[in-house]
Amino acid sequence: MGRFKSWHRQPLVSPPQGVDPELWELFGGRSGDADPELLETSARLRLLLHEQAPPPADPAYRGRLRANLMHEARQRRGPVHRPRRLGLALGSTLGVAGLAMVALVLVSVLAMPWKTGPVQVRAVVAGQQRLAVTSAIRLSFNQPMDESAVDQGLKISPAVSYQASWPDPKTLVILPAHGLAPNVGYVVTIAQSDARAQNGAQASANIVIPFGTSPAPSAPAGQAPTVVSVTQEAVAAGATSIAYSPSGALLVLAAGGLQAPSPNSSAVASPSSSTAAGPTGSGALYLLTPSPREVANDAVGAVFSPDGQNVAYWAPQSNGTDELEVVAASGSGPPQTLAASSYSAPGLGWLDSTDLIYAAAGQLRRVSLDGAVSAVYPVVQLDPTGFFALSPSAQELFARPGGVPTIYSLPGGSGRALAGLDGLPTWSSSGSQLAYVVSGNGPQVIELSSDAGALSTVLLTAPAGIQLANLSFDPTGRYLAYTTTAAGRQAQLGAMNVQTQASASLGNLAGVSDPIWAPSGNQLSALVSVNGGAFQNVDTMLLAGTGQPLSGGDPRAALALSTATSLAQLQVADASNGLSEMTALLAAGADIAPSVLLPGKFDRFYAVSTTPTATGATSYNVDLRLVRKATSSASPAYLEELVTVQTQGATPVITAIAPGTLTPVPIGPLVVSASATTTAAGTTVFTIQFESDLNQYTAGPQSITVAVDGQAVSNLQFEYAPLTRTETVTAKSLPAGAVTLTVSAPLADVDNTPMQSAYQVALQPVPAATG
Amino acid sequence: MKRPHDREAELIARAKDDPDSFGELYDHYFSQIYRYVASRVRSQAVAEDITSEVFFKALRAIGRYRPSGHPFSAWLYQIAVNAITDHYRSHKRTEDSLEDSPELVAGGTSVDDQVAQRMGVAQIWQVIEALPEQQRIAMTLKYAEDLALADIGRIMGKSEGAVKLLVFRGTATVRAEVLRLRAEPERAAVDG
């Protein structure tokens, strides 16, 4: 330590009062060879930095963070028991209570009639605990707002980067740039002083909107389905709707009869307005399987009974009324007339396999196959057309009282309005999920509502000018088909994975409408226009990639990161089966920095460690190191992130990803530390730790040498541990003398950048610790 | 009677599965971590965001935490250091400028005291903030948080010797910068 100036001629045995002992020793206090200026600077720095303590945390923030942590902690332990409805959240946990209570306050605000006065806001996300990570956050104010003030006062905690836009002065849409993190409690706040309307009105308090994101799926997230093959099963003139029976029989309603299938339907141009006669048009009912046959010669709105035994439909009569008829799907026996309605093709649905409900004379009526009729569900208000739609579970009903799209919970639940709903909603087969298109001032979106409306998520936002329609759930509720149309462009049939919101086009299909899934779930049929809309093919697509995990991948094999999509995917290189793509998104189950999800973020990635989670387990923890070069800084460096992926069994399913943090490390091998120990048997082990990963094949006698009294030692053994970046060099026996370790090029890092300057150190091996 | 260290070890073990135990850890370490983060970013909003990030990451990773002989706080500091680094990297230090920080007039009469009075704590911080990142982290953890060098090594993934070097070099740089700033007015007086 000759660089230290002499200070204390006589070493002190202890530091002066108030001086950190370690710093005192660091600057030579103990040895007496101290630098007094550095010691004084050191003491001054410590004093200054201690005196300038930041103000304590806001107690409200501290409590809120604790509540969110507790909420997440409880979600993470064991099987997750989530409240089915928002109201139950109050009774679940203390951690959720804070969130739910604020949500209830907001809900109560939501229920109050708005009037000019203080600024108020409603947000669908408020109080949600399973918001999709890709959701946009829409805030609707009760009056035109000072947009710049709100933008300035807007804060999301934990912080996310986002884009804020104002479709109109009363609506703020916040779109997280890289999505939200899964399983995190967020709070959107707008300071009271910034929640300012154009007329100067302010909110009565800070606006606080808490919500939580859904946990990432623990199973393979899956992608949107892809088309394996397409068959044109039939062509019909004026076809308006199709339906599958529970056994897979396909029913088509067509005004002009059946003809032979016409090939290449998708290549036929068709104006979007040419899709037959609309959903209420009448025609003959045909069962296409096992062989095409007519089951009714004039029908509207045909629906299969839940057991698939019967088909109910409206038969228009010459006197202007419609008769409700039921015919056996087998074709045995004539149709049976059960009831009549003065409406034209009103709503019709099966409550169970023996009872139907229909609209007549302003009310809903129930009719059994034996003809018994009774009025039901008086709470439901109908519009003048008598239209309604019944959920597959018969627990919800959609109607438009006064023109307002409304969902009723049966039998007596009050309706909830779905503002902005466009067209018809669709339920999953279990009835637990409801999807619908919302049109506002901005682009159309598909929203998913679940838990009886308590939770709402934006599944898909259409680009400007694109119209969404014809939503249809697959039998499992995991996939949703839809159509898109745009002026001057051919219609598209699309499908999305509801869980991940991954969507894909299934093809450009002229005038495509009425997509419906086969009960098997691997086929999707739709009406497609032929010859300018004069006919419709029923195109049936066999689908693949429906989210089933791939098997055969060996988690111990090399791992690679694909940046082909906006969400990075892990791929597993299976030595025996070639490359098989892992269907799970990297984001699945992940607490992972958004940076990882950016395409091109990393130059390379590799597994540095794979260990079974337990002895004999088929689950592995795979440590991946993701690295890129930082070129902007003055001194080049790698930025890297260590991500731990847990795989499960032979199936490469990501079950957990540990957080990673981007950390700079120097380019080229750089020794952090070197040490030497000698075992009782006389073996000397040199341990060299490096800052960055090595190309381990460059580590050997050509780059790492040991010398005793200047004489090189031979027969060294080399071993590299990528996870700890430690090279171990073992010498069986060393002669007595001065030991020198030298590390130099051609030792290179994993990017093959050679060591910039040699490292040499004199080491005195110490006895290895025992026990 | 259990020693505090034993009790903490038990608490950490329970916190892997028991939310309430994690809550106890949070209660114990919140102020410490928040103070450290707030001293580094100087914006309440950013400090809150980063502190939230620290504890959420700790919650998600505590199942993999293994006692290493270092205090649990070192692990939390490690997460905090990384979070702050990420924050600065992504925000380029614009929003958390220290220039608006209130100055503290230090007591004492030494030359350094006088310089410190002229510079103010904010400027001292600026000197620290201008240090290479590794030096800055080591300096802050040592001077502001009074952590042991070995624990800082655990936090930064370095050996204790490497941390000593970082603190030594950082302190020397601060010292040199103080001297430079002290010399400037004197030169100005001579030249003028």
Write the layout of secondary structure elements.
The complex is a heterodimer of chains A (771) and B (192).
Chain A lengths: L20 H6 L9 H16 L7 H18 L12 H4 L1 H18 L9 E3 L13 E5 L5 H7 E4 L4 E7 L2 E6 L8 E6 L16 E6 L13 E12 L1 E6 L5 E5 L3 E2 L23 E5 L5 E12 L5 E7 L5 E7 L7 E6 L6 E3 L4 E6 L2 E6 L4 E4 L11 E3 L5 E4 L6 E4 L5 E3 L3 E7 L5 E6 L6 E6 L4 E7 L5 E7 L5 E8 L2 E9 L5 E6 L4 E5 L5 E8 L4 E10 L14 E4 L6 E6 L3 E8 L18 E9 L6 E12 L6 E12 L2 E7 L5 E4 L4 E8 L5 E7 L13 E5 L2 E2 L4 E5 L4 E6 L7 E5 L15 E5 L2 E2 L4
Parallel strand pairs in A: 44-52
Antiparallel strand pairs in A: 1-2, 2-5, 3-6, 4-5, 6-7, 8-11, 8-35, 9-10, 10-12, 12-13, 13-14, 14-15, 15-16, 17-18, 18-19, 19-20, 21-22, 22-23, 23-24, 25-26, 26-27, 27-28, 29-30, 30-31, 31-32, 33-34, 34-35, 36-37, 37-38, 39-40, 40-41, 41-42, 41-43, 44-45, 45-49, 46-47, 46-50, 48-49, 50-51
Helix pairs in contact in A: 3-5
Chain B lengths: L3 H12 L3 H23 L2 H18 L10 H20 L19 H19 L3 H12 L4 H8 L3 H32 L1
Helix pairs in contact in B: 1-2, 2-3, 2-4, 3-4, 4-7, 5-8, 6-7, 6-8, 7-8
Describe the structure.
The complex is a heterodimer of chains A (771) and B (192). With 771 residues, chain A is mainly beta. Chain A contains 6 helices and 52 strands. Chain A is 9% helix and 41% strand. In chain A, α3 (59-76) packs across α5. Chain B has 192 residues and is mostly helical. Chain B is 75% helix and 0% strand. Chain B is globular and about 60 Å long. The chains are: A mainly beta (771), B mainly alpha (192). Chains A and B meet through α1, α2 and α3 of A and α2, α3, α4, α5 and α6 of B.
